[in-house]
Amino acid sequence: MAKTLYEKVWDDHIVVATKGEAPIIYVDRHLVHEVTSPQAFSGLQVAGRKMRAPEKTFATMDHNTSTTSASLDALSPMARIQVETLERNCKEFGVRLYDIHHKNQGIVHVMGPELGITLPGTVIVCGDSHTATHGAFGALAFGIGTSEVEHVMATQTLRQLKAKTMKIEVRGHVAEGITAKDIVLAIIGNIGMDGGTGYVVEFCGEAIEALTMEGRMTVCNMAIEMGAKAGMIAPDATTAAYLKGREFAPKGIHWDQAIAAWADLKTDTDATFDATVVLEASDIAPQLTWGTNPGQVVAIDQLVPNPSDESNSTARTSIEKALQYVDLRAGTLMTDVDINKVFIGSCTNSRIEDLRAAAEHAKGRKVAQGVTAIVVPGSGLVKEQAEAEGLDKIFLDAGFEWRLPGCSMCLAMNDDKLEAGDRCASTSNRNFEGRQGRGSRTHLVSPAMAAAAAIAGHFVDIRKPY
Amino acid sequence: MQPFIAHTGLAVIIDSANIDTDQIIPKQFLSKVTRDGFGIHLFHDWRYLDDAGHEPNPDFSLNKPRYKGASVLVSQENFGCGSSREHAPWALADFGLKAIIAPSFADIFYGNSINNGLLPVQLTEAEVAQLITEIEAQPGAEVNVDLQALTVTSPSGAVFSFQIAESARHNLLNGLDAIGLTLAQSDAIATYEANLPAWRV
Question: Hey, what CATH topology would domain A5-159 get?
């Protein structure tokens, strides 16, 4: 029977399928961080259980860590306890940990791929919704809760119901300056923030195939922002070229076997999806969110929407509430909106290519007066690479701050948070109310758009001189 | 896990769509290493006027005297979207809620709730609208949720049926420990592992 990519990976991972029960599927790689793991480890301790395969779990510290100091003293007392708890748990259970002093430390979804932990055709889970990122490699990757983290630790499996399948095809080629972030924001704007609920989405089409691995990760990262269980992209030569030689990627004969197995990881031509969405790449302009969810998105040359144009009453109320929260009037041109904060980072956009794109706009320019802009590389390795390329100097010369790796202002658990009334151009993934700080407003954009906004002090159409 | 069989309780309404887990439990409360004590921070930014959580917002439904002691929450579509933080169902349950009724739920939140014995009940938009109208009209209105019968009974006695995966229903009704059940399949897991291709080990 013809199968989709998702169905192939799913079928490959079924350990037990009993009628009337959720199938048990095998987990190849488990990623762990300090915030959603302590209660799972303590659950094992209380029950006197061991980890089934600690060597398949990789831990790092990212959510709560400081981006200004690698010292534990820089952490709040509770954050410090959480970080130390992870250290203790990893030691007790024999889990590999990249702590804040390790060069591999970084955002869990940046670290996994760059170390070759993420592989096509595997099942990867983590107690973090942006685990969808790893689907860029043709892995089935999804976020789980802490009870499930404990389940994976104890059994190396999960009980899961099969999702529906959706194909999102982006046909043709994007115009110059249009990035993966613009593509995925355009998709979310099209299907809505819950358009993917209940589905695993496969992204395909020429515009997706043309993306680098960094770009593909940005697209799959935000699959959760359309409500999807996971996003996947079929592996190809770009995927293999990225992975070859990375620390945990297969080597020698195992690499050859992997390449042979990955060749089949694509949707069969006559396979069918439960839903299909098609976008034309050439229609996509630079995107940004105006409201309080990632589906409330417009192109840079469009106006803030008017609630009275919305016929559905729940949607109309949502728009009205969002406009009130973000303090914008319907009909405003987004290029007229001033910002005072800029955040370049997060598991969506903190990889080397993202930093290069931002640096291109920062080079030889200055951050506008009254704007604070921070650049937070996704990992120690990204930071090292960026510094080798001189990107840190470009940012610093332009007046951006150059920080240590971590999740930082994406969720603002550490000191990197916005004040009430701040308006931020952010390369992260969620513009929810208060996400980056109570009473603050977040506009999601690409790294290039964020850097340009920092320079201009307001949003700009990067396709034109500014 | 405590079994969930049926529950009748005071119902409270939060009439907003797309309530994300950042609203349910904001990030500043995720630094704890235990599962308990999150209820006081539930919906913090909406529930309190100050950051310290000392000044309740009188306009927020959970703070209204008529909803004190509520154990059933009725809300709108896409409830629990966003972050996978299980702190969200921990906070809802710790606050005293037993069931959440909405036209739709985000996937991760839905699963997390079931794993904590908090029942997510999906009704149609029209049914949720009727529940809201009835609850608003009658202070003290109680709603019954019956997982055995798969029904919700409104304050006026209207009965709505709902669906849930049989496996989830079975686990909830019996308060089963999913890990214990899976550990009983250790042999099957070992067989699967023995057949893994070398590149995936």
Answer: Aconitase; domain 3 (3.30.499)
Q: How confident is the model at residue A377 (pLDDT cuts 50, 70, 90)?
A: very high
What distance in Å separates the CA atoms of residue A142 and residue A163, rounded to the nearest whole number?
12
Distance CA A141, CA A109 (A): 11
Q: Which residues of B touch A35 (CB under 8 A)?
A: 30-31, 85
Rounded to whole angstroms, what are the CA distances from A123 to A12, A120, A126, A307, A316?
A: 10, 9, 10, 42, 39
Which of A19, A56, A286 has its CA nearest to residue A176?
A286
What pLDDT is recorded for position B2? Answer: 86
Q: Are the beta carbons of A39 and B34 separated by less than 8 Å?
A: yes
pLDDT the model gives residue A312: 87
C-beta pairs of A320-324 under 8 Å, 24+ apart in sequence: A321/A292, A321/B16, A322/A290, A322/A291, A322/A292, A322/A293, A322/A296, A323/A291
- Please give the tally of structural domains in chain B: 1
**Min Cα–Cα distance to chain B from A212, Å:** 24
Q: Give the chain A residue nearest B79 (alpha carbons).
A: A194
In chain A, what residues touch B165 (CB-CB under 8 Å)? 22, 161
Domain A164-239+254-283 maps to which CATH number in 1.10.4100.10, 3.30.420.310, 3.40.1060.10, 3.90.79.10?
3.40.1060.10
Residue B1 lies in a domain: no
Nearest to A258 among B33, B115, B199 (CB): B199
Model pTM score: 0.97
Instruction: Quote the minimal CA–CA distance from B107 to chain A in Å.
Output: 7
> Is residue B1 very low, low, confident or very high in pLDDT (cuts 50, 70, 90)?
confident
For residue A200, the chain B residue with the least C-alpha distance is B107
CB contact under 8 A, A194 and B34: no
Q: Where in chain A is the domain with CATH 3.30.499.10?
A: 5-159, 287-456
Q: Is the Cβ pair B86, A143 closer than 8 Å?
A: no
Quick one: pLDDT band at residue A314, thresholds 50, 70, 90?
Answer: confident
Interchain pair A76, B31: CB under 8 A: yes
Fold of A287-456: Aconitase; domain 3 (3.30.499)
Domain that holds residue B112: 6-200
Any domain includes B108 = yes
- The whole-angstrom distance between residue A328's C-alpha and the CA centroid of its chain comes to 27
Best mutation target, A21, A159, A433, to test chain B (most B CBs within 10 A):
A159
How distant is the Cα of A163 from the closest Cα of chain B, in angstroms? 10
Give A304's DSSP letter. Answer: P
The enclosing domain of B104 has a CATH number of: 3.20.19.10
